[in-house]
Design goal:
Order of helices and strands: HHHHEHEHEHEEHEHEHEHEEHEE
Strand order of the largest sheet: 2-1-3-4-5-11
Number of strands: 12
CATH class of the largest domain: Alpha Beta
Number of helices: 12
Number of domains: 3
CATH architecture of the largest domain: 3-Layer(aba) Sandwich
Strand content: 15-25%
Structural class: alpha/beta
CATH superfamily of the largest domain: Response regulator
CATH topology of the largest domain: Rossmann fold
Length: 334
Amino acid sequence: MSARRKRTTIREVAEETGLSPAAVSYALRGVQTSEQTQARVRAAADRLGYEAHPIARALASGRTGQVGLLCGSLEDYWQQSLAVGIGRALLARDRYALIVDAGGDPDREAVLARRLRDQRVDGLIVQPLDPSAALWEELAGTVPVVSIGDALHDGGRSHGEVVFDNRRGVTLALEHLRDLGHRRLAVFTATRASTPDRPADVHVDAEAERLGLRVDVVAVPQGLAAATGAALRVLGVSDRPSAVFCFTDSMAYGVYAATRELGLDVPGDVAVCGYDDHPMSALLTPPLTSVDWNIDGIVDAAVELVVGGVDGTGDGGRVVRPPTLRVRTSTDGG
């Protein structure tokens, strides 16, 4: 068995440069030393293979270099893509994402949020299952919090938020289905009893009344199996809706699975519309109509907000993402 390679110490860098360990530490952090000294110390550190110990660096700077990313449910494929994008964007800024999954459970979300705080993450990005929970105010007093998808209510002083123009997104989807002749729809949503004020869900009722649509809202847990089971129950009856509008594309994939099991044609027997335009949606048979929120723009905005909060260089704020309806043959087979 080979011996473990010994970590180069800051004292060895000091001996190499003829400086004191304290001066080397200052130079590596870019403080209290000249640019020439900093360049000389960094060159020596590179030659010796010196890497600052993360715990020591955190103690010295008060930062860990980690940003917590609390996902509502990683069974949702769009949230998986969002987590990948945020992780890469943070890495490009010399930060690291600590990704955890609430699994669709608000109680678990609260436990994990506090655990991330206790692990001293520098900032927190969250896709809240329960945006009205009291814990957000508790956390916002100690760490910059940026929310995606929903604003934090009841005193949750988030540093920033990246929200969606859900009123416009719902209107685009429902008007599209109405214009194709659909009058009775099922709407699949992951909203739980703890989040009754989700703006997208509220807009469905208002827009359905305006457009003269009959809408049945069905609560569906995240995950392909759950969505498939719900779709089998909704579509496996003679008096089924002619269209299903899903608040995630992952749910729409479950509807596809159910139609195949029931021998139904999409869109001939039932039209299907999603809501986040996951890249896989264009590859389905037939390709899925979906509302696109520009995931790259969401990633950039969330990371910019949280890094600004950590570094003290940004004032935070609210970013509203506009929607685009990507019409494909899952609704319009013509």
